[in-house]
UniProtKB/TrEMBL annotation:
Domain of life per record: Bacteria
Entry-linked Gene3D superfamilies: Spore Coat Polysaccharide Biosynthesis Protein SpsA, Chain A
Protein name per the record: Glycosyltransferase family 2 protein
GtrA/DPMS transmembrane domain residues: 262-377
Family annotation (SUPFAM superfamilies): Nucleotide-diphospho-sugar transferases
Subcellular location: Membrane
Membrane topology: Multi-pass membrane protein
Protein keywords: Glycosyltransferase, Membrane, Transferase, Transmembrane, Transmembrane helix
Signal peptide: none
Listed GO biological process terms: glycolipid biosynthetic process; polysaccharide biosynthetic process
Natural source organism: Phenylobacterium montanum
UniProt entry tagged with the keyword RNA-binding: no
Bilayer-spanning residue ranges: 259-281, 287-306, 318-343, 355-376
Length: 377
């Protein structure tokens, strides 16, 4: 059961502040305890004269981020905390934070202090004037100085590639479609919320791609700062998340990004299966046993890769990893024996062993997706 923890008793002053807020700033957090007070102070200075509130959406950080937010909220009614238990993901956190708002405008900003909060008033002016429906703080307009905070050439190259791929999929020309710093009219998020992916990190791209009509977008330059505390959340798995989202949007949203990621993992499992099959064909083992061993090896690698990529937001560790593997094997055992039977039958027709093995593996992959999606994760 998924749980969301908020302050059970909200003071009347806090409720009034939330109701009258013109702008809600959503800050998704995970292990950002050291940055909470600093970010609130920066927002207070930058948004002087503006009715604002900040919603920190915390993915049950072990460093006490939620407690730090609530300590600030106890003395500042503009601050709220949503603590999410048993689920993670920046995209889902942003959606929940935005949907909790009654303000007409919503901004999204990282809690690591790398985004320039002094840009928020200008962003709000663009929305209120009608010049834009969405304002994106871009690292790619205003000269190369705007991307100084990117950590190293590899991350910069990866960011460039992500933006180029994003612009190929979107119907709009946006220089930084994967920016984590933007402001939008809240009803535009409400409109597409049911179709937004809750896993992954590229929520801005998803919001733009999900709109039924092109948005009026303005981009403003900013300098991407160095992180002051905590650690970066970027890793190779986020690249896979993004690729899955791109492919999902290319399919018109018909195929969920998680299903596409599962399919990519399954493709790697097919490679593993055929590799093991080829290696064991040189032994004296009979073909049925060889097919069984190849299928079991592929099933094991599929479980590991799906755990760290497809279901990274529900990743199992320790004992839960072992229990999940046992359940995975139990559910997939039917597909293993079915794939062995199918491959053996196809092989008996005189078909090449590689083709026979692949036919069994494909059938097993279909069963694996359905059962694991429903029961394991």
């Amino acid at each position: 059961m998924e749980l969301t923890e908020t302050r059970a008793k909200t003071p009347a002053s806090a409720r009034a502040a939330s109701a009258s807020a013109e702008l809600t700033v959503v800050a998704p957090t995970f292990n950002e305890c050291a940055n909470v007070e600093k970010l609130v102070a920066k927002l207070d200075a930058a948004l002087a004269g503006i009715a604002w509130e900040a919603v920190f959406v915390d993915d049950n950080s072990p460093d006490g981020t939620a407690e730090a937010v609530k300590a600030v909220a106890a003395r500042d009614p503009r601050i709220r905390c949503i603590r999410r238990v048993r689920r993670r993901g920046l995209a889902g956190a942003v959606v929940e934070g935005a949907l909790s708002s009654a303000a007409p405008y919503v901004a999204v900003i990282d809690a690591d202090l790398q985004h320039d909060e002094t840009l928020l008033p200008r962003m709000l002016e663009q929305l209120k004037s009608g010049a834009a429906e969405l304002v994106v703080a871009s690292r790619y307009v205003g000269g190369p100085k705007t991307i100084e905070g990117l950590d190293g050439p590899m991350r910069r190259m990866g960011s460039d590639l992500a933006n180029k791929l994003g612009r190929m999929v979107l119907r709009q020309d946006v220089s930084d479609p994967v920016s984590g710093f933007f402001m939008i009219r809240r009803e535009l998020v409400d409109r597409v919320a049911p179709s937004l992916a809750t896993e992954g990190f590229k929520i801005l791209f998803d919001i733009i791609a999900s709109q039924p009509e092109p948005l009026k977008i303005v981009e403003l330059p900013y300098v991407f700062r160095e992180r002051e505390a905590g650690g970066s959340k970027l890793d190779k798995r986020i690249v896979i998340d993004y690729l899955g989202l791109l492919l999902s949007k290319l399919s018109g949203g018909v195929i969920p990004s998680r299903a596409l990621m599962f399919g990519m993992v399954g493709a790697s499992g097919l490679v593993v299966h055929l590799t093991v099959l080829q290696l064991l064909l040189s032994t004296d083992l009979n073909f049925s046993l060889i097919q069984f061993l190849a299928a079991m090896t592929a099933m094991t690698t599929n479980y590991i890769f799906n755990n760290i990529t497809t279901y990274r937001d529900r990743r199992k560790r320790g004992l839960a990893f072992v229990v999940g593997y046992v359940k995975f094997c139990a559910l997939c055992s039917i597909s293993v024996f079915t794939s062995v039977a199918v491959a053996t039958m196809v092989r008996s027709w005189g078909v090449y062993p590689q083709i026979a093995g692949a036919s069994g593996a494909v059938l097993g992959a279909l069963w694996n997706y359905v059962t694991t999606a429903l029961a394991v994760w």
